[in-house]
Write a structure and sequence with these properties.
5-stranded parallel sheet, alpha/beta, 190 residues, UDP N-Acetylglucosamine Acyltransferase, domain 1
Length: 190
C-alpha cells in the first residue's frame, strides 16, 4: 500500500508538504495558535488547554510564553516542568521530544524540517524531517537554533546564539556556530 505524505514525513522519508492532508493539519495548528497567542495574559489555563489539545504529550506543569509557533503540534512531546520564553518556534514535521525540567530562552527555534541540498528535488517541493530529542534538565539559551536530527543529552547547557548541527552529550556546556562542547559540568558549578 502506498504511503501518504504524512506517513513519509513522520518516517523521515522525502515527502511533499503541500498536499491537502498536511496543509489542513498545518492550518488547524495555525488557527489554534492564533487563539493561543491572542488570549489575554491572565488566561494561562485557557492557553494551556489549547496546547494540551494540540500536543501529543504534556503534563500539568508547563508554561510557554506567547507568541509560540509550530507546524502541527501532534509531534511535540513535553516532559514535566517545562518552560519556554517568548518566540519559541518548533517545526515539528518529525517528533520533538523534550524531557523533564527543561528551560528554553527567548527566540529559540527547533527545526526538524530540512530540504535537499541539490536544487532539483528542492525546487520540486521535496523535503524531509528528522526528530529532535532534548534530555532532562537541559537549559537552552536564547537565539539558539537546533537543526534536524539532533539529540541533546541530559543536564546540558546550550549557550545563547548557538547553532546546534550535531548531537551534544550529557553534562556539558556547549556553544557556538556550529555548537561544540566547551567543557564538562562539574560539582564546582553548584
Amino acid at each position: 500500500m502506498k504511503k501518504t505524505e504524512k506517513e513519509k514525513m513522520i518516517a523521515g522519508e522525502l515527502y511533499q508538504a503541500m498536499g491537502k492532508e498536511l496543509m489542513e493539519e498545518r492550518q488547524y495548528a495555525k488557527e489554534q495558535l492564533f487563539q493561543y497567542n491572542n488570549l489575554e495574559p491572565s488566561k494561562i489555563k485557557a492557553r494551556n488547554q489549547i496546547l494540551k489539545k494540540l500536543f501529543s504529550k504534556t503534563t500539568n506543569r508547563f508554561f510557554i510564553e506567547p507568541p509560540f509557533r509550530c507546524d502541527y503540534g501532534y509531534n511535540i512531546f513535553l516532559g514535566d516542568n517545562f518552560y519556554a520564553n517568548y518566540n519559541l518556534i518548533i517545526l515539528d514535521c518529525a517528533p520533538v521530544t523534550i524531557g523533564d525540567n527543561v528551560m528554553i530562552g527567548p527566540n529559540v527555534s527547533l527545526f526538524t524540517a530540512g530540504h535537499p541540498v541539490h536544487q532539483e528535488p528542492r525546487v520540486a517541493g521535496w523535503e524531509f524531517a528528522k526528530p529532535i530529542t532534548i534530555g532532562d534538565n537541559v537549559w537552552i539559551g536564547g537565539h539558539t537554533v537546533i537543526n534536524p536530527g539532533v539529540t541533546i543529552g541530559k543536564n546540558t547547557v546550550i549557550g545563547s546564539g548557538s547553532v546546534v548541527t550535531k548531537d551534544i552529550p550529557e553534562n556539558v556546556v556547549a556553544a557556538g556556530n556550529p555548537c561544540r562542547v566547551i567543557r564538562e559540568i562539574t560539582d564546582k558549578d553548584k
